[in-house]
Write the structure tokens for this entry.
Amino acid sequence: MLYALAVFTPLAGAMVSGLLGRIIGDKAAMGASVLGMIVAAICGPLAFFQITAGNPPGLLDIGSWIESGRFHVDWALRYDTLSAVMVAMVTFVSMLIHVYSIGYMGHDARPRYRFFAYLSLFSFAMLMLVTADNLAQLFFGWEGVGLCSYLLIGYWYDRPSACAAAIKAFIVNRMADLPFAVGLALIFFKFGSIEFATIFPAVPQHLHDTYTLFGTTFPALEVIAFLLFIGAMGKSAQLGFHVWLPDAMEGPTPVSALIHAATMVTAGVFLVARMSPLMEYTPYALGFVTFIGASTALFAATIGCTQFDIKRVIAYSTCSQLGYMFAAAGVGVYQASIFHLITHAFFKALLFLSAGSVIHAMSDEQDMRKMGGLARKIPITAAVMWIGNLALAGIPPFAGYYSKDAIISATYAAGTPIGYYGFFCTVAAAALTAFYSWRLLFMTFHGKARADHHTMEHVHESPWVMLVPLILLATGAVVAGYLLSGWFIGAGWQHFWNGSIYNGAHNDVLARIEENPIWVDYIPLVVGLAGIAVAFVMYILNPLLPVRLSQTFSGPYRFVFNKWYFDELFDAILVQPSIRLARIFWQTGDATIIDGVPNGLAELTVDGSRQAVKIQTGSLAVYAFVMLIGVVVLIGVFMLSR
Amino acid sequence: MTNAAGFPILSLITWLPLVGCVIIMMVRGDEETIASNARWAALWTSLIVLALSLVLWVLFDQSDPGFQFNESVSWLPEYKVGYKMGVDGISVLFVLLSTLLTPICILSAWDVIKVKVREFMLSFLILETMMVGMFCATDFVLFYMFFEGVLIPMYLIIGIWGGPRRVYSAVKFFLYTLTGSVLMLLALIAMWVHAGTTDIVTLLHTPFPASMQTWLFLAFFASFAVKVPMWPVHTWLPDAHVEAPTAGSVILAGVLLKMGGYGFLRFSIPMLPDASTHFAPFMFALSVVAVIYTSLVALAQEDMKKLIAYSSVAHMGVVTIGMFTFNFQGIAGSIFQMLSHGIVSSALFLIVGVVYDRIHTREIARYGGLGDRMPSYALVFMLFTMASVGLPGTSGFVGEFLVIIGALQVNFWLALLGGMGMILGAAYMLWLYRRVIFGRITHADLRSILDLSPREWAVFAPLMVLTLWMGVYPSSFTSYFDASVGAMVQHHTAALATTTKLAGMVH
């Protein structure tokens, strides 16, 4: 009951504020949305604590959804540890973002009911996703968050850049969703169902199923896992599909926090964990997961080091951290990836919201080159942002330390070549993470103030309605790792997860972390501190150094600064050809070739009849003459044939 | 032969609109009176027909795969041609779709049609008779008459109340569809010669020799493919839509396109199982091309109606993929997709009509920034945009998803390429939405544009409810055709097995 309330009160809030917003007024609509979310944020964590207290997992069936022959799916809420963890996190973080938005959107010229309706709907879609009992309902939430992100990224719809970013987010996601949908169809083809309760026990019977593609025979489970993971790559913005995520910064800052922390991007990681009973039997797909995750972690971190927009730095950091989560999932330690997902939700929401607080204070300035020296003017924001970055960089005892270390250790403990690749990438990314985090802190809060006098005079600490959520999140960023690590990855993990995350009999990576050499435990911390030191040298001691470095190594710098030219590449190989092809199909294909045939036939008929018309001259003499000829011919024929 | 209603309900639904026509024709007075009376009479007639058709909805026996509410009157006994009516799971919902969309069309044309109002309303009521009759007919000759009869009022609607190039479009529409139909007439005669009857139920159980099936299939294909329309005989559709008045576009997209799909399901697939199987790869190829090609063409359109017309072709491509998979999910998906498309594309044409009535242009570039002035319109538009791109929770998802599931059982690439509409559809619809609703208002006349009127709300509300209902609880619709689809799949498998056995005996 609590559980259902947690899922459906955000929907109710969204409906009231979205549909009745213009009638009941802006304040009331906002109140309804926030109230719905607060109720959810009470029920969600309570439902989670119930399950840790020994409540049995269960299923809340709401009703049938699609039925077609053997195909059958229900609307249902799955209640197990994995879902409950996600529900608790989503409702809690989302509630704080709702509250924060009251202050943040206070100055917006437009009525705000639309904004709050979208926020609540977003949370609802995510909750439906994580509580799904079958892949179709998961897909419902999956697409629902896609829609809401589209609406929210394009919230300021009079800005062309926001509209473009919104469309880009939706379409890039859709490109990944198509293989995902085909993957669902393949699961149905092989298993006769897409309900978790039917699929998971049946996996061992399908180990030797094959599926032929490209003229080659593959294990069917591998094909399924690959297709599903492509979907996850889209939603979680992994290498190649990451291009929508930085542009998503066009939305208001609370939206960025919601997309990057609580909802949407974590869906892919959740999917891999949810499908662990299947993924455990697909070693190649898992290797691919680690490869993509680790590569993304490193790749996004390099870009994060060069950006100047405060939100974009954090956006690339999200991309990178999601890579970490996949790296862990790929070596079979789904527990660590969900653990990092939860701690990340706290500190990433914190980072975005405090960045929002900075932007708010700076009169909507986002360029870090125009900041600096803000720590004294907005001390609380500076303090919580320090906490967020300490957590992000994995400095003990902050939350990120526990989860990130677990991931790095797990990749090493896997002992496979791909595991070592993951280890290398994640360690290198850890150094870069620390570097760009402190680069952000130093450029924003310390050193000389670079903003103009006028802006600096206006800098003010945010109202309490924004600061309280920040402080709560900061508390989470401090303690979440310490408190949760015992449950998530401690010795009793089997009891805690209670079967909702599955490890195959061959998979003992989590246990083998204990056997790692001691240096593996310390290396993330060492490289992290080194990263901080470099940032200190470059942005505090010698602020001219970064400029000189970027000039000396201008080639590589431009490559990274321009995000490895992914946008340009996709524009050249996907967008432009599609537009050209569209024109060719339309102008040449339809208008000239296909319509040419009937129109040509029509002209032929018209021409023919014109010729025929010429015979009818209307002159009696001609008619008489022709008749005469006819008679002569007739008589001639008659005579000859006799 | 059963009739749960106890009275000839199908004939009543079919012919009642003509009674409305008689009433409208009897009205005398000045032009204003005639127009007003014609509107009200047409609306009431269509609403009564709708109410009557709801009896079908209630009394239809979902577990019966065969025809229900049967009527049979001897007509040309020496030729074994009868006046026979009946609906099964496949046709019943199309009857409801037709009777639902007619009052919506009449309401949407309320103030918009200003000349020859009486004739307009008459055309619509005659059109309704023809559409409903076509879905109800269980005699091939009767079916053929209704099938062709639809052309006449539609031709008039485009040709009289259409845009500047209406004559070109109307003639193109007429010639395209008529050419195909002539071939169907030949097929009809051939079937009659072979089976000695035109009773559809008998024909469904008459095996036709394989060589004959091929020719029959091609003849049917010529007729139905134009109606669907399948690539490459689709170019009449954008022209017809662009020139047709809004109500004409609605009924064209909503019901007339379904006649092709219905024809395939009623005749080609069950009566010609071998040829259908033989030609399935060909149908898949054309359908996949339709999905990708027309979606791309839609992307390049600068006219709102043309864009939606092309999107219709793409969506109907998904339909033809589904039905030729011959499996349960594929066929059920294609029926559902047709119903959903009937609602959603109708709504999209109505949405174009709303701004066309105000600004009198369909050029996308003339709009922009409507979100500020027309929040309700933006909401309605967003809902149907999402339904069109197949967002789960809307009707568009269920059909498309079932077709993908059905298609994958045939071939991986069929599912993947047939599903390309998921991506391209999102691209052209969101791009359209962005150019019309988002952005800043730059054209002065848009600054004073008005939001939806109560009449327009009344037009959209039932469609919105249905779109969400079909998306959230599709079972209340799929349950109508489950039994029939099941029987059809079984029939198809059995027929193929017989052919294989026969072939085995020969060799």
Observations:
- The longest helix of chain B spans residues 328-359.
